[in-house]
Amino acid sequence: MIIVFFLSCYQVEAEHCVWYGECGESVKVPGKKYNCNYTGPPKPLHPEGYELLTVYFSLCFWPIFAYIWCSNHSLSFFKNLPLTRIISMCRCPACFFNLMNLFCELTCSPHQSQFMNVTKINASSVEEVQLPSLSFRYSQVNHFVVILHIWSQGRCRKQFVLSYTFVASVTHHPLSADVPVSGYTPMNNKTYACTEGLEDGSGPCSCQDCTNACGPKPVPPPLPPPWTILGIDAMTVIMWLSYMAFLLLFFGAILVAFLFLVNASCCETLGERFENALRTLFSSWGSFCVRRPFLVILGSLILVVASSGGLVYMRITTNPVELWSSPTSQARQEKDYFDSHFGPFFRTVQLIITTPLKNTFIYSPYFGGSDVPFGAILDKDILHQVLDLQLDIEAIVATYEGQNVTLKDICLAPLSPYNDNCTILSVLNYFQNSHAVLDHSIGDDFFVYADFHSHFLYCVSAPASLNDTTLLHDPCLGTFGGPVFPWLALGGYDATNYNNATALVITFPLNNYLNDSGRLGKALAWEKEFIKFMKNFKNPNLTIAFSAERSVEDEIDRESNSDINTIVVSYAIMFIYISVALGRIHSFRRLMVDSKISLGIAGILIVLSSVSSSLGIFSYAGVPLTLIVIEVIPFLVLAVGVDNIFIVVQTYQRDERMPQEELHQQIGRILGDVAPSMFLSSFSETVAFFLGALSNMPAVRTFSLFAGLAVFIDFLLQISCFVSLLGLDARRQEGNRLDIICCVKLPERQETKTDGFLFWFFKKVYAPFILKEWVRPIIVSTSATHSHLSLEFSQGQLPLPWLLEHADGFKIGLDQKLSMPDDSYVLDYFKNMSEYLHTGAPVYFVVEDGLNYSSPEGQNVVCGGVGCNNNSLVQGLTSPLPFSLSSTTIAVTPSSWLDDYFDWVKPQSTCCRYYNTTGDFCNASVVNPSCVHCRPMTPSGKQRPIGEDFMRFLPMFLSDNPNIKCGKGGHATYATAVDLYPNNTGVGATYFMTYHTILKESPDFIDALKMARILAKNISQSMDHKVFAYSVFYVFYEQYLTIAYDTAVNLSVSLAAIFVVTTVLLGFELWSAVVVSLTIAMILVNMFGVMWLWGISLNAVSLVNLVMSCGISVEFCSHIVRAFSISVKNNRVERAEEALAHMGSSVFSGITLTKFGGISILALSKSQIFQVFYFRMYLAIVLLGATHGLIFLPVLLSYIGPSVNKAKVFAANQRYAGTERERLLNY
User: Fold this and answer.
1) Half-sphere exposure of 1091 (CA within 13 A, CB side)
2) Rounded to an integer, what distance in angstroms lies between the CA atom of residue 806 and that of residue 788?
3) What is the torsion angle, in degrees rounded to the nearest 10, for the CA atoms of residue 261, residue 267, residue 270 and residue 272?
4) What is the Cα–Cα distance from 697 to 306, expressed in whole angstroms?
């Protein structure tokens, strides 16, 4: 920087003083002194002054042993200066050189009279002097303090500093500008640009301190251009072309079908033999179960009890980390690494405080300057009330296991045991959490020179200051020994105008514990008492939103408990319906005979037994349960189990016993007919679910394991225990015994057997109607249109990689507000957090073990100061090429323990000292002649420590508490940031902390994680060493980086499993499996459309529901398709009509009606997550499954269903030759 002083018109005599020493008190700035008028020759400096000149003014151009014009008093203020500012300037050698040289000339130069002239003297005090271009009132001590403050902010620009220094509106100093003068000899001392190195070997300033050294400002990469075809959105074009192609092929196929009759089939003989083997097996088994019912029931009961015994070892996972993050995932491994080296992330208790008062007020600085508006929340009366609240919270006492627990027992106290004050990130910490300090003011009877306004304005610009340099001289540093950054303690302000804040943010960080349940229990107990206190707190002037670390989990538990009644009512409705609907009542007289309430209850118990057996078996294996398993699997198994129950019972009710056929043979024959269909659906679902367990998402994997086993156990119990119970119930009914009251018997009377209404409706009305020639094309076209629209509207929702690349409406994530009850206090906290906060969660860039910090090479790839690489870690986070800082979601420059250590150890500071007698560390506040500087004031001593010196002084830095003599002590800020080897032999893993920008919605959190990992990857490549980013929310949001892929894989694998199983179990009828898979795929596509329509995002909960919908869809489709495949009617339309008539009614009554009643009750839930992810999605699953399985699928089969299997027709004719049965199946 070049300082040019023009000559003044008024010539003065060279080589004499203009001032010396200190005299009268300043009127403008109380507490400061004017220099004494003196025009004599220079005087020798006292030996004490030489030491100060050697330390601070060694850069002066004149020799320090010369006669000069400054006294010891003029230099002694350096001993009391906040050394953090001097150290900050030293990080930029050119800036420090230029500034110190300017101060040397103005204060002590032997050539002073050549460029300075006294223009106003009051008694013996110099009140005004002239410089070549400026006239100002001068108070040298305060002047330099202001310059130091400016330089410490990293604004090393001469124009800014000089204009700031000589503007009277700045209240921190007494300088004022006047008219230019001329006639003086220019002061043309050599200066350096911040991009230049010094002659002593010091390098140029870093990018952090010199913007010219940064190179071009990074430009964010441009957004990819939209994918278009002929100027139209490409996805829209593709969707419409696909839709038109489908319609063209469909109607073309109809035309071909009229012209050519294709009746091709393959593997018919093999298929018939496989079908016959299954029929024979299940017939024999069914007959055995009816003949030996008590043996089968007892055996089933023993197996269920043995399996369910594992519930004793049941463990429910409520830890969100274990629920949503796989132990092998990147985020989980990084979290474990961070916890093991630095300890777990602290727990957080936070308040966001606003006021309903709207009155703002204006602060007018006494020493001049622009008026400063203050928001109502910063009114002193309001601050006093907030301080009362804060102190009340500090005084909360909880009880844990008979012991009192206070905040100091669990809070984060970084300077403990030297300072046990809790970390409280609050604006009240600028006032030391004291009413007296808040009321502290300096003034007289007429004016107030300084008060909480000036102190606040100073502290928000220098929160680490130990002396605010106003007349108050109060510290800004928090009582816990660390700074309170304004962006953490204030909210609702614009830019950096913190005085406009509309909210106060108070944060209490609490210690967290990994494997210490006792200490964790104390923290939980105190948080519980805090929540209770805040719920009861009332103040008409304060509006408070609050949250504790346990709040979300507590509210989820409360939500679950409040929804128990809703769930119980839902299942009760389904149970009652099943019990009543199973019976076919022929007359009122036989109401209790024909009803099957006991059989229905038994069927429900079997379903519940299968669920408990699945839970028990996996509990034996140590697999923990989740709330999703408990809430979803009973619904799923009930859907599958009830469907099979209705099929078995209703098939028996419609069947007529053949001549000479006994009951056990009849039920065995019926089971042989329907069990393959039940086996097809159940086994398909089981395989699909077990393959879903390959997912890396713990919630999905756990659900898939439990669901797959529960479905298969349910099938086994139904074809054994339930069949035995059906045989007993049939004997009861044939004996005219009452249901439930089996000992009561009605007299014999001839009854006419009739079909049920639902079966009659499907057979005579519904099936013939939808299979009419003019109805079928409408149904197919409507279904295709619906699927097309689902694709079109949800193109941002479907988990297809090529689709995601060009999707605009893709919604991924779980809005945290949905997990809360409607009346939760946490909802207000989430709302205020989005509205007022300006800074997001802390993010740590962790440098893994193995980097040699003692070597210059290892230091240069990390640090951000002089001599450091331009692509170092700190520089990479400050200027993250090729991104702008805002696009990386990084809010502030990271704190760097390495750079602060280099500043701390410099000989220019008094921070690093040791006892020359013992070698132990000597704190800067200690006055002892045996304390000497760690590094000598030599060129080599001013260099960074390397080798043994680096490790010798680093433990001292990490143990040094900040104080008024040295604010750079690293104990408060970096005690946990550096993992030292045993015996301090080296540095292991370290971290560099910064903050994310404010993150409001799930996409914000996901983008923050993405960008942090990109930055960490770039830094790792530039350092050639592993660096990763870690923040507390990464383990929860990592799943969303791959959830689209995981969804595509899970659903694809499930569909593939269903296709393979269906192909085999339908007698190797490949085309039947294609039809089933196609219909299920259409159901899934329409599910995504419903999710888009209802605003349901894609996350782990919705993925579980999608996997479940894939399984339930099998129930809607497989029974119809199998009935169609074994029908021996003349053509596809008749076969489809027969399949729909005989199986459709069971599917409709078994799944659709059962679930519809139970699901409707879920709409009354207070839980938003129940309303969105259970009521809406369950309702969509049932309605879409019913419409596709009972409307679209029969019509599709009537067009492109598999041809009749001639081998099956021949086998059926032989099997029923000479009997009254003329068709293959009479369900």
Assistant:
1) 31
2) 17
3) -20
4) 30
Residues 658-673 as b/e (b if ≥16 CB within 10 A, e otherwise) read: eeeeebbbbbbbbbbb
Cα 686 to Cα 697: distance, rounded to the nearest angstrom = 19
Q: Where are the alpha helices (DSSP H) in 57-211?
A: 72-76, 83-90, 93-108, 140-152, 158-165
Q: Give the DSSP H or E segment for 347.
A: strand 347-354
CA nearest to 308, candidates 625, 637, 623, 610 = 610
Which runs of E-coded beta strand occur in 144-267? Answer: 228-229, 232-233
Least confident stretch, 407-416, 1001-1010, 1109-1118, 1156-1165: 1156-1165
Selected residue with higher pLDDT from 243 and 1040: 1040
Helix, coil or strand: residue 485:
coil
Q: pLDDT at residue 126 above 50?
A: yes
Residues in the chain: 1227
Q: What are phi and psi of 752, to 5 degrees?
A: -90, 130
For residues 1116 and 639, the answer to whether their CB atoms sit within 8 Å is: no
| DSSP secondary structure code for residue 424 in this structure | -
CB count, 10 Å around CB of 503? 23
Q: What angle do CA 462, 463, 464 make, to 5 degrees?
A: 95
Q: How confident is the model at residue 337 (pLDDT cuts 50, 70, 90)?
A: very high
CA distances for 594 relative to 25, 591, 599, 733, angstroms: 110, 6, 11, 7
Indicate the pLDDT class of residue 154, thresholds 50, 70 and 90: very low
* Residue of 1097, 1116, 1224 lying closest to 1168 (CA atoms): 1097
Under a CB-based contact definition with an 8 Å cutoff, are residues 300 and 293 in contact? no
Confidence grade of residue 53 (pLDDT, cut at 50, 70, 90): low
Tens of pLDDT, residues 173-183? 433 334 344 55
Handedness of CA 914, 918, 920, 924 (dihedral sign): negative
| DSSP reduced 3-state for 139 | coil
Task: Give Cα separations from 191 to 95, 113, 204, 1125 (angstroms).
Answer: 9, 21, 13, 94
Task: Take residue 1076 and report the two structure tokens written for it.
Answer: 């089933």
Supply 207's token pair. 């990018």
Cis amide linkage into residue 320, ω under 30° from 0: no
17 with 41: CB under 8 angstroms? Answer: yes
Pick from 993, 1033, 986: nearest CA to 1009: 1033
**What's the DSSP call for residue 739?**
S
Q: Among 889, 905, 909, which residue's Cα sits nearest to residue 897?
A: 905
- Which residues, in sequence order, are bridge partners of residue 573? none
CA distance 642 to 76: 91
Contact yes or no for 459/498 (Cβ under 8 A): no
Under DSSP, is residue 141 helix (H, G, I), strand (E, B) or coil?
Answer: helix
* Ordered alpha helix ranges (H), 309-398: 320-324, 330-342, 380-394
Question: What residue spans of 354-504 are helical by DSSP H?
Answer: 380-394, 407-410, 435-439, 452-461, 486-489
Classify residue 759 by its DSSP letter.
H
* pTM over the 0.85 mark: no
Torsion of CA 697, 699, 702, 706, to 10 degrees: -140
The residue type at 596: K
Question: Is 320:1036 a contact under the CB 8 Å cutoff?
Answer: yes
Six-digit token pair at 52?
Answer: 């100060």
Highest-pLDDT range among 129-143, 150-164, 276-290, 358-372: 276-290
Distance CA(815)–CA(807), nearest Å, equals 20
Residue whose entry in the numeric block shows the structure tokens 């014009």? 69
- Single out the residue of 979, 996, 966 nearest to residue 900, CA to CA: 966
Q: Is the pLDDT of residue 104 over 90?
A: no
Q: Which residues contact 471 (CB under 8 A, 6 or more apart)?
A: 29, 30, 31, 442, 449, 450
Rg of the chain in Å (alpha carbons): 41
CA distances from 719 to 49, 275, 282, 673, 725 (A): 102, 17, 8, 12, 10
